[in-house]
Specification:
With about 160 residues, the chain is an all-alpha fold. It has 5 helices and no strands. Helix 1 packs antiparallel against helix 2.
């Protein structure tokens, strides 16, 4: 049973490292200051997830009791204010929108993976760890969608376009 859990956690660890690297590599390419700031924060949050999962793997491998240390909810996202993105070229906004969409899909995949792992976990502590990870990734996903939608509206405004919905 522990081998199965460790296998799932090792897969999760690889995925979290990939997410961290994605944000690290993309943050400097972002032309929109808000997006760059979000990616910097997400890189740090994914790093915290990596450390959390590594600790879980170590505890389970040693046969220790699993102690769940909660990662605080990111106050950065709650306090973030919308900034005007004036002076940013339309092509740059479109590039940032594309990367934001990719980031959203990455976080959605993470959230779905952890939710499914939680649903399949028989151990209550492991289930709780996966549920926490799913919640954190869902928060990331929702924030990315919000930033994407704000930037899209800015782009539409720059283009003199207003959708019917």
């Amino acid at each position: 049973m522990n081998e199965k859990i460790i296998g799932v956690l090792k897969f999760a660890l690889v995925r979290e490292r990939e997410g961290m690297e994605f944000y690290r590599n993309k943050k400097n390419d972002m032309k929109t200051p808000n997006v760059r700031e979000v990616f910097e924060s997400l890189e740090e949050m994914e790093r915290a997830h990596v450390n959390y999962i590594m600790e879980l793997i170590e505890n389970i491998s040693r046969g220790d009791e699993i102690s769940l240390v909660s990662i605080p909810s990111p106050s950065f996202f709650e306090k973030r204010t919308k900034e005007e993105e004036k002076g940013i070229a339309v092509d740059n906004i479109m590039g940032d929108l594309s990367v934001l969409r990719t980031a959203y899909l990455i976080e959605k995949d993470f959230a779905d993976f952890y939710k499914e792992a939680a649903n399949k976990s028989e151990n209550a502590e492991i289930r709780k760890a996966f549920e926490d990870l799913s919640t954190w990734e869902t928060e990331h996903k929702n924030t990315l969608l919000m930033v994407h939608n704000e930037l899209m509206k800015e782009y539409w405004g720059d283009q003199g376009f207003a959708p019917l919905y």
